[in-house]
Amino acid sequence: MTSFTVNGAIHSFDGDPETTLLWYLRDVAGLTGTKFGCGQALCGACTVHIDGQATRSCQTPVADLEGRSVVTIEGLSADGSHPLQVVWREINVAQCGYCQGGQIMQAAALLSDNPHPTDSDIDAAMSGNICRCGSYPRIRAAIKLAAERT
Amino acid sequence: MARSADAINVSRRAMVFGITAGALVLALRAAPPANAQATRFGGAAMRGGIKDDPRLFLALDESGTVKLLCHRAEMGQGVRTSWAMVVADELGANLDRVEVVQAPGDESRYGNQDTDGSRSMRHHFLPLRRIGAAARRMLEEEAAARWNVDVSTVATDQHAVVHRTTGRRLGFGALASGAAARPVPLPDTLVLRPANEFRFVGRDRIPLVDNHDITTGRAVYGIDVRLDNMAFAVVARPPVHGGKVKRFDATETMKVPGVLAVIPIAAPALPSGFMPLGGVGIVAENTFAAIKGRSRLEIEWDDGPNGTYDSAEYRAALEVAVGRPGDVVRDDGDADAALARAPRRVAATYYTPHLAQAPMEPPTATARVGDDLCEVWASVQSPEAVRTDLSKRFGLPREKVIVQPLLLGGGFGRKAQPDFAAEAAVLSRAMNGRPVKLIFTREDDLQHSFFHAVSVDRLEAGFDQNGRVVAWLHRTAGPSIRSIFAPEVTHKAAFELAMGAVDVPFAIPDIRVENPEATAHTRIGWFRAVANVPHAFAVQCFVAELAAAAGRDPKGFLLELIGPDRLIAPASLSDRWTYGEDPKLYPFDTARLRRVIETAALKADWGRRRPDGTGLGIAAHRSFLSYAAAVVEVEVGRGGEIVVRQVDLAFDCGALINPDRVRSQLEGAVVQGIGIALLGEISFKAGRAEQSNFHDYEVPRIDGVPKDIRVHMVKSSGYDAPLGGVGEPGLPPVAPALANAIHAASGARFRALPIQARTKPQLQ
Ligand code: FES
Ligand code: FES
Predict the structure, then answer these.
(1) Which of A121, B335, B406, B738 counts the most CB atoms within 10 A of its CB?
(2) Prediction ipTM score
(3) In what residue span(s) does the Aldehyde oxidase/xanthine dehydrogenase a/b hammerhead domain sit (chain B) (predicted)?
């Protein structure tokens, strides 16, 4: 049995210990904001925060989570008011939107480490997150706008 | 059966299907008479046609909330937001009081529902306006009756009807039930709002209706559907198209905790259309267990007739094929004779590989199939195709096959081919009606796509003594999409040839286009912009090569080749398709092509001196009835590294309905075009796709695209003129402009895509 929190609520799991956090969140816990894109740490769609660090949930066995704290896009803010969520809407960053939860979680971790990232900081932090719709120019603009406001 | 209504309430939030009690309209109205003799074009020619009855699409309740049923799939193009804008404007509604509801698949009710061909807005701008205008008229009549005034003295104003002379005002909510009892005005009595009264159409940066859900993780995509007692599945499919299972052993699979069942799926006969490929389904308590169970499956395949498919050999064979004459598909003058007497000839051969659409949300569907009801929730661009297939497959009347599209996490053509929906249904049936969610892993997606067709294009041109191009010969060979539906297809279809092969607008007297034979050895399908991608790549690179051969500036040379401003009838280009539209409404307007070229060049400051190792390339292409030109700036390093510095894309699709979504589609097209130019290829060995995930099928990432993607709108007409498409036409000019820029920067000419895979050895 592994116990951990997701968005502040206590979860425990005693299934196959190899089960990854991604599929636990989506299929067992019913938190579908965390997306599947590649299953191989190649796309970032599954990004969550574990103890504040941006982490690929598709590569994280639930068994490793004992006592740890997971935050998903659903828990980033209570009402969608995180500064990044706000600018994401202002700039209409999303096209299909599928990757955007992962993008926002990755960007949130970036800004909490580095409130005023340069273009190359943004490249370095965000290049693991694929957007097949090609919303990259707006992702960059949104991160900069959020940074400007802090 | 009693469950069908509530069964469909799959998300945690209520979803409404169809317009129910309290709907706006009661009275019946006959459909406008159709002229059976006339050839139909546009939306009217599509299966199911166009419907514009407000009762089907609109509901207004007493709180004043407008519900708008959107019967096209949202896959990032913004259709849900754009439709709300159009209807809100005609209705006089406030946009934030319009709630968009996704329609289930039902073409007999809603008209055609295929979301493809860049035509949702092209076909529906006017019908949506008629829907809004009819409902507005009913609200106005109701208000006028209540005030006992003439209807000509009332007007809508921000979700209310006002009496102009007295300023009296009644909100839409207060008028709802009375208006609903009024007859629907006949279409020819409707007065559409003049464009200067639009409050949303044409306005920039309208917030997406799904913005809040998307940014908070609450948006429900096909992959997010949840039903009680749902199981999860993946399928092991034959690695070769047309193969089947020889034998399998699931002993180890069944030992994986959570695995529930292993279900063989029969392989279809070829050509297999949208049928599942067959194989072995693994159904489990969660997706992780299903994937793990599949990895333990011991399975032996019979590869079938395509087991020797090798895309490198195929390319070589097509290169031989384009060296010889083929079916003549356009023949102006006598290109052979003109070439023979030309004092100078130039020829080049180009290659575009297979590609996988790779939408970020892979193909996915959830099904619950009982004895007398089949329900499917899926990320599909063509829900009616699913209904057709499943009603046949399960022997159910069509109304017992309910297909609910959800948000698509990207489509790019892949989800127009709903093999995955049938897989989910077959597995649910085999599980005695237990709901099953089927997903493609990324490996499945890349290896079992409906692949973008390979194309080999050989072009040859002749110059006269004055350096003018007087002859043009284009041979294009590659498998056709028709090969998935019909046996022994050996040639590109008319619609594929009319995507940039025959419809070149050049003022050259002798033009011939030929299509030598090619047979498909894998599953071919739709990819954003389809055959325009290879044709534009070949034609627009070749034009730049001719300019170089003539020692001319490529932009000036391209404009000269296009020649004087004129309207060209599609038939005179041997274009037998014109994207399904009336050729009289959509002539090839070379002035529009010229203007996008000039705009892109101007904005990119074409002709300015550039540092060594950088260069500008240009390309222009008309597709989906819209005109696009790209100027790309690249820097080529000494080691052959290519950095795309800036892209200027000029675009003319006629009037802009939702400018922000047009821009975002074009920004996305530039990014995808850079990927096609530099990175993407699915290759085959022994019939098997060699790529498996984003490490070997690379797509652009944020650090590989320019910070400056600049999109410039050229508005050529108002809201009364025919519209062009938006989702696809930005893509075709990007790759050739990039290849041309590399040539300008480095002198190296790349004629095969993707370039990055081939640069280093050749540029050093
Ligand atoms: S799904 Fe985890 S990185 Fe792609
Ligand atoms: S918005 Fe569609 S994948 Fe990023």
Answers:
(1) B738
(2) 0.99
(3) 216-305
Provide the token pair at B292.
């793990």
Number of domains in chain B: 3
Domain A2-75 CATH class label: alpha beta
Question: What is the spatial distance between Cα B294 and Cα B170, in angstroms, rounded to a whole number?
Answer: 62
pLDDT tens readout for residues B247-303? 999 999 999 999 999 999 999 999 999 999 999 999 999 999 999 999 999 999 999
Domains of chain A, by residue range, sit at 2-75, 83-148
Three-state DSSP class for residue B208 = coil
Give SS3 for B101.
strand
Q: For B1-28, what is each residue's pLDDT tens digit?
A: 333 333 333 332 222 223 333 333 333 3
- Ligand 2, atom 4, residue with closest C-alpha: A131
Residues 6+ apart with CB under 8 A from B617: B544, B554, B631, B632, B634, B736, B737, B738, B739, B740, B741, B742, B743, B744
The answer to whether B528 touches B510, Cβ cutoff 8 Å, is: no
The total number of residues shown for chain A amounts to 150
Given an 8 Å threshold on Cβ–Cβ distance, is B358 in contact with A132? yes
Instruction: Verify that B339 and B476 share a domain, yes or no.
Output: yes
Residues B648, B649, B654, CA angle at the centre, nearest 5°?
145
Question: Letter for the amino acid at A126?
Answer: M
> Does B674 fall in a domain?
yes
Residues near B560 by beta carbon (within 8 Å), at least 6 away in sequence: none
What count of CB pairs under 8 Å joins A to B?
206
Which amino acid would we find at residue B427? Answer: L
Reading the block at residue B260, the tokens are 């529930």
What gap in Å lies between CA B234 and CA A36, rounded to an integer?
14
Q: Rounded to the nearest whole angstrom, what is the distance from the C-alpha of residue B208 to the centroid of ligand 1?
A: 26
Chain A hits for B410, Cβ within 8 Å: 95-96, 98, 132-133
| Whether residues B72 and B158 fall in one domain | yes
Judge whether B753 lies within some domain: no
Contact (CB<8Å) B215/A85:
yes
Q: Let me know: does B725 contact B626? Beta carbons within 8 Å.
A: yes
pTM of the entire predicted model: 0.95
| Contact across the interface for B257 and A16, Cβ inside 8 Å | yes
Q: Write the DSSP string, B428-477.
A: HHHTTT--EEEE--HHHHHHSS-BBPPEEEEEEEEE-TTS-EEEEEEEEE
**At the top level of CATH, which class does the domain A83-148 belong to?**
mainly alpha
Which one-letter DSSP state was computed for residue B104? P
Q: For position B24, which CATH number holds?
A: 3.30.365.10
